[in-house]
Amino acid sequence: MIRMKKNNKKLKIIVYTLLIIYSIFTLAPFLWSILTSFKTTAEIAAGGTIFPESWSLKGYETVLASQLPTWVVNSLLVALLTTGINLIFNTMAGYALARIDFKGRHVLFSMLLALIMIPSQVTMIPLYIVVAKLGLVDTHWSIILTTMINIGYIFMMRQFFVNFPRDVEEAATMDGLSKMGTFFRIVLPNAKAAVATQAVFVFMGVWNEFMKPLLFISSPDKYMLTQGLNSLAKAYKTATQWDVIMAGALISIIPIFIIYIVLNKYFITSNDQTAGVK
Amino acid sequence: MGNKRYLNFQGYSFMMPALLAILFFTIVPVVYAFFMMFYKVDILSGARTFIGLDNFRKIFEDPKFWASFTNTFRYVLVVVPIQTMIAMALAALLNSKINFSRGFLMIMFIPTLTSSSAMTLIFMWLFNNNGLMANVIEQLFGTKVEFLTNPSLVLTVIMAMNIFSTVPHFMVVFLSGLQDIPESLYEAASLDGANSFKKFLHVTVPQLMPITFYVITMGLVGCFQIFDQAFILSGGTGGPQNSTLTFSLYIYQLAFTSNDMGRATALAFVLGTIIFAVTYIVNKLLKADEVNG
């Protein structure tokens, strides 16, 4: 018995050590970027120091004087609008697939399942042509409209509504609410957790998206943040102004990081819901 | 009867926005892609000429295609197994009744939150010729390693970066799977005298099989499509010496640099077929394995 306990303690120490090592390993690149962002360009070019000799805000000043603030606003607006549209439309579709017994429901469901398998590269070029034909190239609508629904989250919501108690809706219908009325007044408020999960992931998806802005948007004042970061890096890399580039990269992480701290539980629970679905 | 019609009307009005979006932005492009593969399309002039299977012939004769083929397969073969194993091991560690597991989880999840562009810039700085990694190696071994300009090393940096940023996501997926394994299985193994490592191997790993399945499939699909990191790191060129040219990057180059949209779509179709075939084969193999125990 004593031997076992001793073993257990040893094991615990190993587990903690491994977890601490991996956590340090995770944080190190970020800490290094933070330190770099406060160094002067001369210090970066010379190398050899870990902590900044004198904490300089030059990197942040340069980045804030560039077009980066515009890109942050662009990304925020597009991400918020896209998230709002996704929430309503994905949830409505998921609800219909789970709860409304309409003709062709099963066929539609299998069709959606098949479409989810098609890699985005196959549709990328024709999608560009469709966007061009609609006159949407170099507008933010190109991103908002082509990202306005997500089949993965339609599935997630369907799974959610399959297990949603029926009596709530039935009571509402008896009170004379239409289906639409029931949906917006009763169903949606009761699906808060699933909707929040969806919101967090759609927002993160749009905020971090790189390929679509690259294809659709060409004027620097309309750039999304990820695309802007890339152009920022191109401009400052040759002069080894990594303080500027790291300041930009770190600023781009902050909004997601705040959402992560506030809505932490939705980031973690979400995955088991999507895992069963995809 | 009236009720049935009412339900149909309700169902389709709820589905309508999603169906319209899917029609315009998924189905129309897919159908369009099927035609474009067989044409030479010039986006600038809008000219289209039917050339049959010529796009495919050109692709297979193209050395750049084979470069992207080799790079992408190397990438998938390294990244998918490593990220799956690390994610599973970390999940098992986090699940072993320790304090602060929530804290560890919160820290470890950070790379998954970070956008591919910010992550790539951070890694480019780490592995730069005067960056931290090069300096540390020079201090320790006295040799200067140039990660980003050496064609045989630069893909490795992208692999490391991708493992770093996708492990946390799959770790959380594994973690939710671990919580469903009944405690009684571990107790039985303990009675048989199994130590922790044996328990992991003989209880955890087989019980996690369905989740592993999902993680490998998602990993394969994601890795075959690698684009952002290669694009940003090479400035869109796929260099040095095509060493970061992936399938997706080459598709992009064909379509938007060489203006050959037909051939680009044909290549995208080849990529889609490869993804589908590989996922199918891997799933068959894993399933066969599962049955044999």
Automatic annotation (TrEMBL), chain B:
Domain ABC transmembrane type-1: 69-282
UniProt topology in membrane: Multi-pass membrane protein
Localisation: Cell membrane
Keyword Secreted: no
GO BP of this protein: transmembrane transport
Membrane found in the keyword field: yes
GO CC, one annotated term: plasma membrane
SUPFAM superfamilies reported in the protein's UniProt record: MetI-like (SSF161098)
Segments passing through the bilayer: 12-35, 73-94, 106-127, 153-175, 208-227, 264-282
InterPro entries in the cross-refs: ABC_transporter_permease, MetI-like, MetI-like_sf
Keyword set, alphabetical order: Cell membrane, Membrane, Transmembrane, Transmembrane helix, Transport
Family recorded in the similarity comment: Belongs to the binding-protein-dependent transport system permease family.
Name the UniProt record assigns to this protein: Sugar ABC transporter permease
Upper lineage: Bacteria, Bacillati, Bacillota, Bacilli, Bacillales
